[in-house]
Write a structure and sequence with these properties.
single chain, alpha/beta, Rossmann fold, GMP Synthetase, Chain A, domain 3, 4-stranded mixed β-sheet, about 15% strand, binds xanthosine-5'-monophosphate
């Protein structure tokens, strides 16, 4: 695969004027690349794929076919929101596939992080290939790859959205954001008219909760993670931290400790809170969360989420820790 390199001369996109220039240039080059063919897009609902979708809708309209695959590793309510925003409001050509069972069966008993990523990545490709087979004339696959994905794919991590497609698929890639950093993607998204809440939504990795349900994924632990994550998001929304913190989430390791609940021994998993700030995801600092907020979150998670009996806060910046745990 040809490695893309951001030229030193490339200006950082910080204003809507620069974003508009980028958008116009990309519209021209997307139209040149695609012609009258159809493009398939994996629309996860994250910032990157949402911005790619908006850009492509502007460039080629209904030639874009958005496919939202629910791999069973989405955050609570996320697939529903994708359908609402893109299917209803933006009137995109949207196909929804619930592939939860397929993914979870393939992931059973797989604990190695890179294997998990590869399974999720290749299953994605399988779902798309099947979907493309059912559609007429799909020639291109659009992806929300951004520059840090490219930089970090050189040995650090096998991100599912970098690394190319199997040779036997005849899709050519359309990756209009490949040279942009995250903050630039957001400026472009706003210039495209996407809602502020969508553009400033925190990033969510392609493999989703799969990289936060550490080790071999089980349905009960995945469910606990999703519920705890929803509580964290709700509480951050309430106290204004959602606007302020770049990325925040829960990690649930495959580890039980002893606890006590209602006078009985209660073995459970810990929920680990991660809340980081960064501009480009290459390094990150830790947000200072008020203790009162941490206590509220702890009380709610331990009371409301079955299987969780402790809440921890991760104080590790990047480096040394990566943002995700896997
Ligand atoms: P790390 O953990 O490498 O994460 O410090 C940097 C940023 O990338 C996101 N991330 C991913 N995004 N597929 C993605 O699309 C992945 O497999 C993946 N892993 C990490 C992470 O959430 C953070 O924003």
């Amino acid at each position: 695969m040809e490695i893309m390199v951001r030229p030193d001369s490339m200006q950082r996109i910080t204003t809507s004027a620069l974003a508009n220039k980028f958008i116009n240039d990309q519209i021209t080059s997307i139209r040149n690349q695609v012609g009258d063919k159809k493009v398939l897009l994996a629309l996860s609902g994250g910032v990157d794929s949402s911005v790619v979708a908006a850009l492509l809708i502007k460039a080629i309209g209904k030639q874009l076919v958005c496919v939202h695959v629910n791999h069973g590793l989405m955050r609570k309510g996320e697939s529903e929101q994708v359908i609402k925003v893109f299917g209803n409001t933006l009137n995109a050509n949207l196909i929804y596939i619930d592939a939860t069972e397929r993914f979870l069966i393939k992931l059973e008993n797989v604990s190695d992080p890179e294997k998990k990523r590869k399974i999720i990545g290749s299953e994605f490709i399988n779902v798309f290939a099947e979907q493309a087979g059912k559609l007429d004339g799909i020639s291109f696959l659009a992806q929300g790859t951004i520059y840090p994905d490219i930089l970090e794919s050189k040995g650090v991590k096998a991100h599912h959205n970098v690394g190319g497609l199997p040779e036997n698929l005849n899709f050519e890639l359309v990756e209009p954001l490949a040279l942009l950093f995250k903050d630039e993607v957001r400026v472009v998204g706003e210039a495209l008219g996407l809602p502020h809440t969508m553009v400033y939504r925190q990033p969510f990795p392609g493999p989703g909760l799969g990289v936060r349900c550490l080790g071999a994924i089980t349905r009960d632990r995945l469910h606990a993670l999703r519920e705890a994550d929803a509580i964290l998001r709700e509480e951050f929304d309430k106290c204004g931290l959602a606007e302020k913190v770049w990325q925040y989430f829960i990690v649930v390791p495959d580890l039980r400790s002893v606890g006590v609940k209602d006078g009985n021994r209660y073995e459970g998993w810990p929920a680990i809170i991660r809340a980081i700030n960064t501009t480009d995801a290459m390094s990150a600092t830790i947000e200072e969360i008020p203790y009162s907020v941490l206590h509220t979150i702890t009380d709610r998670i331990t009371a409301e989420v079955k299987g969780i009996n402790r809440v921890l806060f991760d104080l590790t910046p990047k480096p040394v820790g990566t943002i995700e745990w896997e």
